[in-house]
Amino acid sequence: MLRILPALLALPAILALAAPAAPPVAATKPWREHYHGQALDDEYHWLQNRRDPAVLAYLKAENAHTEAATAAIAPLAKRLAAEMRKRTAASELTAPSRQGDFYYYSRSAAGQQYPLNCRRRAAADGSYDEKAAEQILLDQNRLAQGKKFFALEGLMPSPDGNLLAYRADTSGNHQFQLHLKDLRSGRELPLSVARVTSMEWAADNRTILLTQADPSTLRPDRLLRVSIAGGKPVEVYRERDGNFLLGIGRTHDGRFLELMAASADTSDTWLLPRDQPGAAPRLLMPRTPGHRYNAETHGDRLYLLTNKDAPNFRVVSAPLAAPQDWTEVTRPEPGTLIESMDVYRDFIVLNERTAALSRPRIYSFASGQWRGVQFDDEVYLAQANTEAAGVAGYDATSYRLQYQSPVTPPMVIEIDLASGARTVVQRQPLAGVDLGRFTTRRIWVTARDGVKVPVWLAYRKDVKLDGSAPLLLYGYGGWGFPSEANFNLGRLSLMERGVIYAEAQIRGGNDLGEQWHDDGKLMKRKNVFNDFIDSAEHLVREGYTRPDRLIAEGGSFGGMVMGVVANERPELFHAIVAAVPQADLIHEITDPTLPMVTYEYLESGDPKQKAAFDYMRSYSPYDNIKRQAYPAMLVTAGFRDTQAQYWPAAKYVARLRAHKTDNRPLLLKTDFTSGHYGASGRYDAIDGKAFELAWMLDQWGIGN
């Protein structure tokens, strides 16, 4: 008996370890601030100190709790990850794009996290020659070895093709280091510049112009000239206004480098001859608050995409020597937004958005006529992206774009600029899936103020629309970013299991033009949250789902939307996923040490103005947590995230746990190695997404 007594006494402790641990309880510490005569108490303010060991201990305790609470779904997450990996092409090849004497592309090999960046010499007639010898420029897998995070941006060969400049982030904080490689010898050159946000080669193959972020604010505020021969970078221009960000590019004809400064509502452009990198940049026109424009050159004329007297932009032309002597070229139809402009030797290509859909419009200098490009699908994404779609050079007679939909894998389409004829030059392979089983549709929701809000849906054709279906409603609604109806393997896994996926194109984006954006920012910000709630109510009322089958999801700014709707209408949602949420708006926007904080004043409001401060405080998720029942919630954060700090999520969860009156799950998962966009490797990213999908499926009671 004496020998078995110690074992009996130890049994309760063993059983306690086997059960999920109780949620961590964050310590409360007095902290009071005053704004506009108002006292603001913040008992979890201490969580903002990332150097405090107690903060790390709390975040790790939350991670341990999340891991224990979700142990049962680990097999499901593993199955989902395997499913998505199987559908991720073992070997992926991007459509080759010509620059100079070479065609550049990237390819991924089976089992590798990162791609190889490669090129082949063009054939004598200028076409792509797949039999030409392949040169591997960068093996990103080798560069990523021994690093917990690796991301590459701005791969840029010199004009003569002998050197390669590229930017790499190895910390996850979205701060990129400039590197230079000699493509003849394969040797890395001893040139390195920190915090590079954009860059361009001068025509001499020896000079790089780049923009650099401030080490404290992370605002790109300096234009530097760097010689590959070495020496200290030379400052060419510094932007003193904290609301403006700098970027460097070049005109499509390659004659000029373009320095651009942009705030949330105003922009400037300077031109610098590409063959005179030591010259001073020339400002095209004086800065005018509210005026936004982009510039291209064509012979002795400028083409400007401007919002002056045209909220949805118009195209004007002016002599290069007299940039303000405008002649209108075109303006869009009412309700249509011109998003971008590319000027070729013989054509202009506009990317326009109308009725929440994007499509190109082409102008021929020879005929003086415009030609629209139409697509038949009700829901799709046609993306004119130079890097992704391989837009050809200035002399091109064809134009490439990437086309996809929630039920159509991405394809690269080449459009003949003269005839409008289309050729599919590449399709993303997808084996073992009958996409004919799925469908998409767009509905229009009448918001509480009478405005029509578009919502697109994708689901299996045999799903019964009787209110019983599980539905995931996603929303963002900020910064003028539109909803993108892209193809997504994780979404496909949900739809295969009977889930309806819906995305509300709420105000705050530019889905229906610039007014749509304006109506969701500053003192109209609450339209964003109301639109999301009204969309959810419509989906319930019309029989797509019911509240106990409805999950909401949003990230970054969309994470703030999730926090607001959880406070305002918790009974409408069964569960909520808030990824890297902007959950503590007041402390984020009043802290001058945070990156890019003043840039946000024109989107959210200036906290120094009492009316703006009071309005923001009235909806900020952290400041409006109530003593009530909440949906089940999964909240994620990135410890290295410089765009949405880790601590708004941590503070939000701590305060919510102390106030909510229910026993539903409230989980916080902090990634200590990645930043705003999650894991960098393609398979690691799949694993992270599989966990979120498994958690949602578990909330719906769906296993396999």
TrEMBL record:
Domain of life: Bacteria
One GO process term, biological-process aspect: proteolysis
Assigned keywords, A-Z: Hydrolase, Protease, Serine protease, Signal
Gene Ontology MF: a single term: serine-type endopeptidase activity
InterPro entries reported for this sequence: AB_hydrolase_fold (IPR029058), Pept_S9A_N (IPR023302), Peptidase_S9_cat (IPR001375), Peptidase_S9A (IPR002470), Serine_Peptidase_S9A (IPR051543)
All copies of domain Peptidase S9A N-terminal, residue ranges: 24-427
Residue ranges of every copy of the Peptidase S9 prolyl oligopeptidase catalytic domain listed in the record: 490-700
Record bears the keyword Signal: yes
Position of the signal peptide: 1-18
Family statement: Belongs to the peptidase S9A family.
Protein name per UniProt: Prolyl oligopeptidase family serine peptidase
Organism of derivation: Duganella vulcania
High-level lineage: Bacteria, Pseudomonadati, Pseudomonadota, Betaproteobacteria, Burkholderiales
